[in-house]
């Protein structure tokens, strides 16, 4: 979905040294396939190698890095100086990107990492816009600066948090975070066990739970500041989330390059995916009303994926959620605004009329309002 809806690069984890231990990450075979798919579409693949490996894990790194180079990976995302040096030795053809976990917030750190062989620095989420401008002015133009523009934010500096380890034994810095910052808290006075007192900030007791970042309205400012690449949080998210947010930012970036103002519909698109209340992070100073309830909001659901379609819009689709004949749906296109249409004249694969798509993953035929390439999402707004 990231590639289909306009990503220039995809970042992902293999089964070693990545910061998403609970995800079903890419096997070596899957990773090779993913690289081939991305390259066939003119996109790149960046593999996270951003845990801080312990001494007994170092011996596995050379072989893994040699594999990544052999698989054609375009870059490794790294958070450790030692790993950086090993990558230079064992995978010299693979670019080295400094992870946001490294916490780079000034030009001195960026320059030092460039001298160590970094091709790109992913700035800490805590870097304000005014400092990005200065970092760009004081670093070599060959060093690419990348910044997060959308997704969840950690309550701790650049993700360096010990809450999960302390409370659950799951180490956030090794990709195992249980996200205790998202939990609801009460106070207990030590001489009154069992008596819980609410902690009220904003409109609840989620005193550590940060809002989500959204910078889609500020893409031109980031470009003018010197950011070369915009990073969207994608791991542990749904395919629908990946599709919608990639599509929205693709259009925002293209509009900025053309010098056009951003159509509000792309801002509205970010409301249709699962998210907490939005803010602009630290880009324009302190976040202010930074905390929110842990609830997610989503205003649309995927009901089908286009499997094939002819030029007249006659399509074969696979179901993702049940919908009925007569329902109003939207076709999420890559080359323009979503197109609304009414589900009519649906048939099963034997050509018999159907009134709904009641069977999970069933294939069916439907007339779309226009041609839609394979992989296009059909959704129903709530």
Task: Give a written overview of the molecule.
By secondary structure, the protein is an alpha/beta fold. Helix content is 24%, strand content 21%. The protein contains 9 helices and 18 strands. The strands form 3 sheets. Strands 1, 2, 3, 4, 5, 6, 9, 10 and 11 form a 9-stranded mixed β-sheet that branches. Strands 15-14-18-12-13-17-16 form a 7-stranded antiparallel β-sheet, covered by helices on one side. Strands 7-8 form a two-stranded antiparallel ribbon. Helix 2 packs across helix 3 and helix 5 packs parallel to helix 7. The mean pLDDT is 90.
Task: Write a short abstract of this structure.
With 382 residues, this protein is an alpha/beta fold. The protein contains 9 helices and 18 strands. It has helices spanning 28-40, 61-71, 81-90, 107-115, 129-137, 163-168, 219-225, 239-258, 264-269, and strands spanning 9-13, 44-49, 75-78, 95-98, 120-122, 144-152, 186-187, 197-198, 212-214, 229-232, 278-279, 300-309, 314-319, 328-332, 339-342, 347-348, 363-367, 377-381.
């Amino acid at each position: 979905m990231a590639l289909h809806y306009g990503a220039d690069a995809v970042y992902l984890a293999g089964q070693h040294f990545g910061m998403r231990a609970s995800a079903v990450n890419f096997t070596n075979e899957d990773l090779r396939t993913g690289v081939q798919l991305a390259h066939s579409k003119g996109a790149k693949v960046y593999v996270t190698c951003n845990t801080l490996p312990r001494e007994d894990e170092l011996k596995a790194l050379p072989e893994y890095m040699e594999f990544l180079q052999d698989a054609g990976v375009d870059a490794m995302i790294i958070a450790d100086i030692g790993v950086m040096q090993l990558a230079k030795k064992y995978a010299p053809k693979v670019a080295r990107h400094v992870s946001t976990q490294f916490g780079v917030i000034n030009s001195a750190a960026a320059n030092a990492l460039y001298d160590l062989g970094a091709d790109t620095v992913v700035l800490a989420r805590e870097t304000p816009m005014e400092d990005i401008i200065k970092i760009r002015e004081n670093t070599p133009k060959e060093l690419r600066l990348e910044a997060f523009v959308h997704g969840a934010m950690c309550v701790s500096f650049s993700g360096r948090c010990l809450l999960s380890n302390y409370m659950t034994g799951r180490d956030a810095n090794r990709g195992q975070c249980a996200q205790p910052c998202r939990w609801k808290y009460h106070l207990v006075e030590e001489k009154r066990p069992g008596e819980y007192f609410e902690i009220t900030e904003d409109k609840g007791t989620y005193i550590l739970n940060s809002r989500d970042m959204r910078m889609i309205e500020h893409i031109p400012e980031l470009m003018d500041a010197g950011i070369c690449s915009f990073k969207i949080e994608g791991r542990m998210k749904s395919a629908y989330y990946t599709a919608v947010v990639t599509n929205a930012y693709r259009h925002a970036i293209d509009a900025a390059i053309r010098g056009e103002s951003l159509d509000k519909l792309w801002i509205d698109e970010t409301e249709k995916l699962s998210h907490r209340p939005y803010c602009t992070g630290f880009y324009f100073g302190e976040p202010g009303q930074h905390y929110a309830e842990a609830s997610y909001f989503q205003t649309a659901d995927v009901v089908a994926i286009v499997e094939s379609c002819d030029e007249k819009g006659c399509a074969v689709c696979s179901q993702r959620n049940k919908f009925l004949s007569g329902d109003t749906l939207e076709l999420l296109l890559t080359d323009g605004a979503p197109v609304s249409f009414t589900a009519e004249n649906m048939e099963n694969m034997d050509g018999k009329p159907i009134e709904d798509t009641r069977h999970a993953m069933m294939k069916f035929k439907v007339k779309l309002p226009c041609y839609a390439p394979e992989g296009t999402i059909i959704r129903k707004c709530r």
